[in-house]
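Can you please make up a whole protein chain along with its C-alpha cells because I've never seen that pairing?
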Amino acid sequence: MTTPRWTPALLPSLSGKTFVVTGGNAGLGYWASELLARRGASVIIAARNEQKASRAIASILTRAPLGSVRSVKLDLADLASVETAVAELSTGPIDGLILNAGLTESSKRAFTTDGFEIMFGTNFLGHFVLTAGLMPTLLATAGSRVVSLGSISHEFFELDLDDLQSEHYSSFRTYGRSKLSVMLFGFELDRRLRKASHSTRSLVAHPGFALDGLSASRPGIGAKRSNAAVRTGLATFAQGKDAGALPIVRAAADPLAAGGDYWGPDGWRQLKGDPTVVRARTRARDIRTASALWSIAENLTGTSLTL
C-alpha cells in the first residue's frame, strides 16, 4: 500500500500562532510563509526589500483568508538592521522563528556592512544575532521553535574554524561552510535549550534540490517557471520550492516534530520527496566544533547568547 503524501492540510489549525520568516518575500521563504498562513497563522516576513515583501504579502493574502501577514525590514548583512528588527519583533509572542534568508553564491569575495565575508556574515552571523536578540521573546512563548535552514551542501565540506572569513575563496565551498555553520548552530542551540530546561526547541530543515522553475506559478514572486519540457527533465532529480518548503513547515509547526530533528526530502540523496526526518552528516552535530563556533560568533558580533 502506498503511503499518502504529506500535505500542510494535515497540520492542526495555526490560528493564534505567530511565525517570523526571514527572506519570506521569495523562494523557499515565500512558500513557507504562504503555507503557514493558509493554516491560519500570523506570518511576519522579515526581508531586506520592502517592495518585494509587499508583493509577497499581497500574493499570500489572496490565498490565505484565515491568516494574516505583515513585514519587518531586515538586512542580515547589517547588524544594525538586525538590532532594529529585533526591537520591532520583540513586542509580541513568537511561536516559530524560521531562519531561511541567505545568499547562495557570490562570484567574488565580498563583505557585509560590518566587514564579515558576505555569505558567512549573512547566512550565519546575521541569524545568530537575530536569534540572540529574540531569545527572550521565544523563551516567553511556551513551546516555541527555531528552525534553521540547512543544505545538502554541508555533505561536501568540513568547517575550517581558522578560515571562517574565506580568505582562500571558493564560492561553493564558502556557501557550503556557511550552511554547515547554520546547522551546527541549530543542533547546538537545541542541546543548550534542553540543558537549561526550556520548552523552546531548535530544529534544522533542508529543501533538497529545490528550484523556482519547478514551483507552482506565483506571478511577481521569484523566477518564472521553466517550460514543460525543461520541467519534465528537471523533475527527475529536483523539485519545486513549494515542495522544498514542506520540510521547513513540518519542522516549524508539525506536532510530531521534535527538537534536534533534521527534516528533509525522503527521496534519493535527499534531493526530492516527502518531508521526513533525515540524517545529517556527523560533522553537523559535532559538539566541540559547534561550541567553538558559538564562541567565535559571540566574539565577532559582540553578542551574547546565553540560555
Q: What stands out?
A: Residues 12-210+241-300 form a domain with the Rossmann fold fold (CATH 3.40.50.720). The longest helix spans residues 171-195.
